[in-house]
Specification:
homodimer, alpha/beta, 2 domains, seven-stranded mixed sheet, two-stranded antiparallel sheet, 44% helix, globular, binds nicotinamide-adenine-dinucleotide, DNA-binding
DNA sequence: AGTCTTTTGTTAATTATTTAACAATTAAAG
DNA sequence: CTTTAATTGTTAAATAATTAACAAAAGACT
């Protein structure tokens, strides 16, 4: 099967989040328009995405929740566990560690780093905090493949460089400063202000 | 001028973030390829966006940083200050309040809410925390137009309902559960797990 | 049993977004 | 002063993403 479009990948993750919640209830099947409503998209889009990944529901019964969850896993999850670290254990870092812990079976935050001696040696949501100086060593030992950056903006680039040097393959950067990485390192960046300004823009021109 | 495409609005916000940083240095002008490098897009895209908003740079000198910042402000900012509140002062809420404070001239977080009595009455980054029961009253008094949700997932919908009832026009939801709002309320949602799963997907299939 | 309604799966059409191409212009170099 | 290289602005082409259209199947209803 051809690898699905970027946007579909993104939505698959959202579908699964929604499906996992539905699965906790007693529903075994779900219609495209029900999924659509949760994600705020159209039912056609849902059906098209599901078609793209080669799943078929049952006519007039909808999609089997469990099966669809598993299939999405087959597509977007790695075979093996992907190990992740967080650099910078401030408010945002802690929010992320705490939110994420145990949420997914194929992704796991296994180490966090900070430069503040008061934090080093402590555990956050059960994950040990290492000194930033040990980053290289720990990343190699723990076989960490993805790093999340939550340090102050002026430390973002140097942190990214360290992560790259240690052999990481993907970075998720929350510091409000874009970082430069080699082309073979996959980079995602997110800035809340962009989202807020977007809301504000559409609010004002209502 | 026609209102720019959604994606351009998003990038304008990013351009401005980058330009503000450049402006702090002594550079007065910047080339499209320099902006492009910071945002990780192509120079053509940058020029096209700038064309769309009707700005013209000087040939072989690039764009005037200050002018471009101001023009982007004219497009995406509101004439008047847009007042924002945050509901849920946990790790994430505090990270947001702290990060955002004072960053933009036309957007301001003026109130935060929590249900925990220990937090009510305190100030966070200078912003007073009110009891959630006073939400309606404070939002009307303070003329708040946008709400940011950072409460636990199971409180997300009820919080959204409260905000809508109080007359808010836009919501930025960070709780990992989609909320339903009337069509005239602009909604943005973001979930870190989607970003992380995206990174993981592209990392594994490298 | 036959009709109606719902819902999927898929192809085609439409719309949105990005990328390419290139003329025009200007600063710098010789 | 002429040539060269760099850079913008814009139109056209290509690509990506969404939406529409609709046939086929299956349960519900009579
Ligand atoms: N992208 C977003 O939407 C968003 C939202 C909120 C905050 N932020 C940003 O995220 C970052 C963290 O925010 P926060 O509120 O947690 O800040 P914070 O100050 O509470 O935490 C920063 C942490 O990083 C550590 N640190 C500093 N330099 C370091 C280094 N070189 N190596 C390792 N650790 C280092 C500090 O000791 C601290 O623990 C900031 O850059 C902030 O602007 C982004
Ligand atoms: N979208 C993301 O990327 C992302 C990342 C991290 C965390 N989260 C989510 O953000 C939310 C907050 O995370 P956190 O780490 O700050 O959690 P937290 O538990 O530290 O904070 C939640 C706060 O909300 C308050 N609260 C609870 N119910 C409330 C209500 N009905 N009204 C008002 N206040 C209420 C609590 O008193 C607490 O202060 C959680 O839902 C978490 O899953 C999302």
């Amino acid at each position: 099967m051809r690898t699905p479009p970027h946007k579909t990948i993104e939505r698959l993750s959202q579908y699964r989040r929604a499906l996992l919640m539905v699965h906790d209830s007693d529903k075994t099947h779900i219609f495209s328009h029900e999924i659509a409503k949760i994600i705020h998209i159209t039912p056609v889009q849902v059906r098209r995405d599901i078609m793209l990944i080669g799943y078929t529901g049952t006519l007039r019964k909808g999609y089997n929740v469990k099966e669809l969850i598993d299939l999405i896993g087959d597509i977007i999850d790695s075979d093996t566990m992907i190990r992740v670290c967080v650099v910078g254990v401030g408010n945002l870092g802690r929010a992320i560690i705490n939110y994420f812990s145990g949420k997914r079976t194929k992704l796991s935050i296994v180490a966090v780093f900070d430069s503040n001696a008061d934090k080093v040696g402590k555990k956050y949501s059960g994950i040990p905090c290492h000194d930033i100086a040990e980053l290289d060593e720990v990343i190699r030992q723990e076989d960490i493949k993805v790093g999340i950056i939550t340090v102050p903006a002026d430390q973002a680039q140097i942190t990214a460089d360290r992560l790259v040097k240690a052999g990481i393959n993907g970075i998720l950067n929350y510091a409000p400063k874009s970082v430069l990485v080699p082309r073979d390192v996959h980079l995602e960046e997110y800035d809340m202000i962009t989202s807020l300004e977007k809301v504000a823009f559409y609010v004002k021109s209502d």
